[in-house]
Design goal:
single chain, about 475 residues, alpha/beta, Rossmann fold, OB fold (Dihydrolipoamide Acetyltransferase, E2P), Helicase, Ruva Protein, domain 3, 8-stranded mixed sheet, 5-stranded parallel sheet, about 35% helix, binds adenosine-5'-triphosphate, binds magnesium ion
């Protein structure tokens, strides 16, 4: 890791030399980036090590059942509560559920404390989250021109208004499909839309006949390169005629519809969205508006144009909600269009927020608890902690020397798994400072002198009866 310390001596306009550091830093490693899914077999049984998860088999299987129920739309309006000690993977489980559901099912995560805002009512925040978790798949058959762009030539003409410069009078676009080719002569506004979408020859596009909206589908696979990794999506040459009727599928959420109807004047492009944010702080979505949106949606569903896809609301640290929110949650759960709700908490018996004397399990009133399926997450043993630490070390690209894993697992068992995971990065920096690229046991030892785990810190405070600032 020497390259980081050498001062850069690159001349001004020269390309910087490719360094090993830049590629290593290419992705930020988030605490849950090793979680890829629940890691279940097709029968729904948990593998002891799968999808980035180690152990916690019961909870994973339970989540697997819930995923199946959500996919078959039998779980909406119900709640799953993940309860367990801190650092036992509750948040990770919820993320895994969202991975398993895929991108088509809306997943709306929030933290309990998000409801407290000075501008918006608590219940409003909850209601909005619920609306964002109901998806709507709208199928429309539209007349389109689709094909691979073979030609894109703007025809220029003298500008009639000023003597200088030229304007585009029309644009000639050639589109090719498997069946044939067609040359279109299009309006300059469509040319602008094409420039915005950065369309070049070789892209597969479609143009809606009525509106002139242009959509880029991808790059024709005739142009596919031999790179292994690319951001480009390659699509085959479209079949059929260039001019045809095509079924377009659009995924939106009820939340999107509410927001769009609350400020109907705005356009689609980013500037007008930004502008409307600036102007009015936050636009109000009233209950009346929601009802109206619901009515329209219901109409679409009855006609068979749209399909409702109930998604998931995930409320982490749910004990942060107060009694008003809990009551409202009960009501939301019983509304006809309710998504699945996943709650997570690490509290045992606690006072329900917003009351002075109601103590209840997990800080959740019993009437809501009664509506939940509860899944408990277990604490990990030393062996499992070691596996998770190893997994994280791999994700972060750290090498562990002999005995380091045992030592960290021991720390994890004594303190908490989070503490063991948190020691990894500083220890790697320490190893780097002493010119090694591998973490050794002594690095961990030194880290332990510098940093305390939660339990040790609490014990210190306990024995000294508080810090000086408190004693004054
Ligand atoms: N079974 C597991 N396999 C792999 N990694 C895990 C497992 N359980 C937890 N982790 C990882 O441990 C760390 C802590 O877990 P997580 O944040 O999910 O805990 P939590 O239960 O949400 O805790 P809290 O109650 O404090 O919110 C995360 O980086 C998570 O990805
Ligand atoms: Mg958590």
């Amino acid at each position: 890791m020497k390259t980081t310390t050498t001062p850069s001596t690159v001349a001004h306009n020269a390309m910087p030399p490719p360094s090993a550091v830049s590629s290593a830093r290419s992705s930020r490693v988030a605490p849950h980036s090793h979680i890829k899914g629940l890691g279940l077999t097709p029968e729904g049984l948990a593998l002891s090590d799968g999808g980035g998860f180690i152990g916690q088999m019961n909870a994973r299987e339970a989540c697997g059942v819930v995923v199946e129920l959500i996919k078959s739309r039998k779980f909406s309006g119900r709640a799953l509560l993940l309860a367990g000690a801190p650092g036992t993977g509750k948040t990770a489980l919820a993320l895994a559920v969202s991975h398993e559901l895929g991108v088509k099912v809306p997943f709306c995560p929030m933290v309990g404390s998000e409801v407290y805002s000075t501008e918006v009512k608590k219940t409003e925040v909850l209601a909005e989250a619920f609306r964002r978790a109901i998806g709507l798949r709208i199928k429309e058959t539209k007349e389109v021109y689709e094909g691979e762009v073979t030609e894109l030539t703007p025809a220029e003409a003298e500008n009639p208004l000023s003597g200088y410069g030229k304007t585009v009078s029309h644009v000639i676009v050639g589109l090719k499909t498997v069946k044939g080719t067609k040359q279109l002569r299009l309006d300059p506004t469509i040319y602008e839309a094409m420039l915005k979408e950065k369309i070049v020859v070789g892209d597969v596009i479609y143009i809606e006949a009525n509106t002139g909206a242009v959509k880029r589908v991808g790059r024709s696979d005739a142009y596919a390169s031999s790179y292994d990794l690319e951001s480009e999506t390659y699509v085959p040459l479209p079949k059929g005629d260039v001019h045809k009727r095509k079924e377009l599928v659009q995924d939106v959420t009820l939340g999107d519809l509410d927001a769009a109807n609350a400020r109907p004047q705005g356009g689609q492009d980013i500037m007008s969205v930004m502008g409307s944010l600036m102007k009015s702080g936050r636009t109000e979505v009233t209950e009346k508006l929601r009802k109206e949106v619901n009515k329209v949606v219901k109409g679409y569903v009855d006609q068979g144009v749209a399909e409702v896809i109930p998604g998931v609301v995930f409320i982490d640290e749910v004990h942060m909600l107060d009694i008003e929110c809990f009551t409202y949650l009960n009501a939301l759960l019983e509304s006809p269009m309710a998504p699945t709700v996943i709650l997570a908490t690490n509290r045992g018996n606690a006072v329900v927020r917003g009351t002075t004397d109601v103590i209840s399990p997990h800080g959740i009133p019993v009437d809501l608890l009664d509506r939940c399926l509860i899944v408990k997450t277990d604490t990990y043993n030393r062996e499992q902690i070691a596996k998770v630490v190893q997994l994280r070390a791999n994700v972060e690209g750290l090498k562990l020397g002999l005995g380091v894993l045992d030592r960290l697992a021991e720390e994890g068992e004594r303190g908490s798994m989070r503490y063991a995971l948190q020691l990894l990065t500083p220890a790697s920096i320490l190893a780097g400072l002493s010119g090694r690229n591998q973490i050794e046991v002594e690095d961990i030892g030194e880290m332990n002198e510098l940093f305390l785990d939660a339990k040790t810190s609490a014990r210190n405070i306990g024995s000294e009866g508080g810090f000086d600032g408190g004693r004054m």
